[in-house]
Amino acid sequence: MAMQVGEQSSDDVMIDINTTPLIDVMLVLIIMLIITIPIQTHAVKMNMPIAPSAAPPKPPEIVRIDIDFDGTIGWNGVIVQKQELIDRLAQVAQQPDQPEVHLRPNKLVTYKVVAMVMANAQRLGVTKIGLIGNEQFLN
After folding, report:
1. Which of 17, 103, 110, 117 is at a distance of 20 to 30 A from 128, taking alpha carbons?
2. Which of 80, 139, 133 is nearest to 105 (CA)?
3. 75 pairs with which residues across the strands?
4. 3-state class of 109 per DSSP?
5. Beta bridge mates, 100
6. pLDDT tens digit string along 34-71?
7. Cα 29 to the chain's mean position, in Å?
8. At 43, is the secondary structure helix, strand, or coil?
9. What is the number of structural domains in the chain?
10. How far apart are CA 16 and CA 74, in angstroms?
11. pTM for the complete prediction?
12. Alpha carbon of 110 to those of 68, 74, 75, 105, 116: distances in Å?
């Protein structure tokens, strides 16, 4: 309701708009909007594969190739020549589930010998090869 100041006669018509019903309608619409908005969930649904058995997987087979400071190549602790190394790498590459090949060069060996071993492994198709013992090169 509006408040009028001053004289008012009984035959004057009230020309102010009554806004109370408009505000009530607006509040009802806002409440209905809030109720109808779906609740936001922050969960992500993922379809995870189910393992056929609970048996732990077997650890991978590891082949260790050591290269000594003078270029001597060792295969799991046994000294081998270049041709024997190539034959053994070919056997590793032919296996369907290749073992991991860990190449550990000595700090003093020339890069030529390490590159030769890695190039032969790549040429023959050995895919799981890695250099280990890199902490010796920090100094």
Report:
1. 110
2. 133
3. 65, 78
4. coil
5. 62
6. 888 877 667 778 888 877 776 777 888 899 999 999 98
7. 46
8. coil
9. 1
10. 102
11. 0.57
12. 10, 16, 18, 9, 11
Which tens digit of pLDDT belongs to each residue from 99-120?
999 999 998 999 999 999 999 9
CA distances from 111 to 2, 39, 132 (A): 96, 63, 15
In CATH, what number is assigned to the domain containing residue 111? 3.30.420.270
Q: What domain range is 112 assigned to?
A: 62-137
- At 135, list the tokens: 């902490």
Rounded Cα distance, 76 and 93, in Å: 17
Are 117 and 67 spatial neighbours (Cβ–Cβ below 8 Å)?
Answer: yes
- Helix, strand, coil percentages (3-state) for the chain, rounded to 5, are 35, 15, 50
Cα dihedral 91/93/95/101 (nearest 10):
90
* φ and ψ at residue 111, rounded to 5 degrees: -65, -25
Rounded CA-CA distance 106/67 in Å is: 6
